[in-house]
Design brief:
The chain is mainly α. Helices cover about 65% and strands about 0% of the residues. It has six helices and no strands.
Length: about 120
């Protein structure tokens, strides 16, 4: 059961926690790049703070990620993200770094605590 919780715990939107942490990391990397490789016409993509963006529904975050990847000219990554958004990529668990795993475990613990509280 513990293994299943670790690997398959999902948000209320049905997003696996591991995917959520990976998405957070990719979004953070785009914000870290700032305006590098962005035309001035595309600077609006960074008008919203990372925290504001990540509080949006997952579809909005993934849409933004596709837009900024295309704006930076990374068409292959944008295509892969759009396929993942539509669920057309085979289910493969991502490999996480130690930092990502810690974030995931923190997120997982909060989710499991909330589920236990809801059952009481």
């Amino acid at each position: 059961m513990e293994r299943n919780n670790l690997l398959h715990l999902c948000t209320t939107e049905g997003i696996h926690g591991l995917q959520l942490i990976c998405l957070d990391t990719v979004v953070s990397a785009q914000y870290d790049l700032g305006y590098n490789n962005l035309n001035e016409d595309d600077h609006y993509l960074l008008d919203k703070s990372k925290e504001e963006l990540l509080s949006e529904p997952i579809e909005v975050v993934r849409g933004w990620l596709c837009e900024i990847l295309i704006a930076r000219g990374d068409f292959a990554s944008a295509r892969l993200e759009s396929l993942q958004d539509r669920g057309e990529v085979n289910h493969v668990l991502p490999s996480l770094t130690a930092t990502q795993m810690q974030k995931y475990n923190d997120w997982r613990q909060v989710c499991l605590t909330q589920r236990t509280d809801d059952c009481d």
